[in-house]
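Appendix B. Raw example, untouched.
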Amino acid sequence: MLKCPTSVIPSAARDLVFSATYEEEISRLHLEMTVATQSVEGEGIGRERREKNWMASFGWVLLVASIFLSSEFVSAQQLETLNVSYASVTGSRIPLWIAKDAGLFEKNGLNVNLVVIAAGNAAIGALASGDVEILGAPGSTTMVSAARGLPFAIIGTFGPSAWKLAAHPSITTVEQLRGKTVGISRPGTTVEFATKRALMKLGLTPGKDVNILATGLAESNKRVLVMIQGKIDATLVSPDNLYEAEQKGLKISVLSDLKDLGIYTSASDLSAKRDFLKNQRQRARGFMMAFCEAIALGRANKNMALASFRKHLRENDPRRLDNLYNNYVVDFLPTKPFPMEEVIQTEIENLTATVPEFRGKKAADFVDKSILTDLEREGFFTQLASKYGKQQ
């Protein structure tokens, strides 16, 4: 709302400033002016004076209306567009949803478009071409591309994952997987790499002892349904999707927890082109500030987080919502979402055999944490803690 000193605005214009719609007010004033003009016909000088006063008031109305609209238009124009994609509609995306729903992107001068692009070549192509500026996808995807020459860097994380290797109820032991088919999402994703590492830890060689099938399904709940149908025999499942299946009465065998196997992965990461981080620094910084504040807001305000889960996952079951909140906000969402360099280093070591470009590389070669480091040095996280309360 435009702020003007009301003492210098005629009463008609003041009515406009505080009215709900300026169109209605202009119509009302025009009508009143017409009636007043008609009622003073034949009054000579008095009539002219009143007409002039009304015209002056009406002029103020138009002026205030035009300034109000102009200020709103300029405000909208000042928001810089930023396209952000994420690979799957899962609970781990909650910081993006909260930032969008709570207006935190706009607070930082951004008009953010959130789009879903499945991890893999399509997502990498969108980032490389500049169709999206920020990519929310498994870090291993951008790491492989960066190792092969593309100027990508991991700039943040959604936190660690908690995958479990689950199987069709007819399979109750790891040994029974021999000769069976294990489903992944897509080639080149964290799900593929984590699945293969888990199988090797369990004594099974992918491609020899078990078949690997790319289902094209990024969401583990969809892979669970394919597994129940008998089209695959096992797959990695997130805790909330496992809980969801159990609540629906689906029988699933949990063969192993990847944490118990010493396999740590990120739920997903944030990546960007290095030239974007350098040349569009303010936009990149604004995004990260909104992302970090969304984390703090979600931790401090459970109802806000639940509202975003309801909206974007179309979920209304209170128990399921509580499960989502505990898994993705309380347990795994980091208050300072720095890239998980230990996980990245493990990815490099495990992938070097199949991606020779990783030889001699370190996690630091694939990371740019300068924005988060600047924010930490400037006291941004301390400010968030003060505003929303200290979080674990």
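End of appendix B.
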